[in-house]
Write a structure and sequence with these properties.
Layout: E1 17-18, E2 21-22, E3 26-28, E4 34-40, E5 45-48, E6 52-55, E7 60-61, H1 64-73, H2 83-93
Antiparallel strand pairs: 1-2, 3-4, 3-7, 4-5, 5-6
């Protein structure tokens, strides 16, 4: 999935995976809403498209069938945004050498 399509902005991410969660994964956020992970930070924070920033400890895995059904209902915000460009921007430009 091109998760960059679902964010309003280019959110920098410090890592591609954190505590078993991956960029672009569909999850239940801390309020119980379904969201897409747009950025992960080494301090334990995540940014979702549903309710913004929250602690990774407060999100839960979304069952695959639920995630697939949710994605069928969603429309990309930026449908022409390139996945490769997004990953390069987030993981290379903003990471410290």
């Amino acid at each position: 999935m091109n998760y960059g399509d679902y964010g309003c902005f280019d959110y920098p991410s410090e890592c591609a995976e954190l505590n078993g969660f991956r960029l672009g994964e569909v999850v239940y956020d801390e309020f119980g809403d379904i969201g897409i992970i747009l950025a992960l930070y080494k301090d334990g924070d995540v940014r979702t498209d549903s309710n913004g920033m929250m602690c990774v400890e407060n999100i839960k895995k979304c069952p695959e069938n639920t995630a697939n059904e949710e994605m069928k209902r969603r429309s990309p915000i930026r449908p022409c945004y390139s996945y490769n460009k997004y990953v390069e921007l987030c993981l290379n430009k903003y990471s410290k050498p």
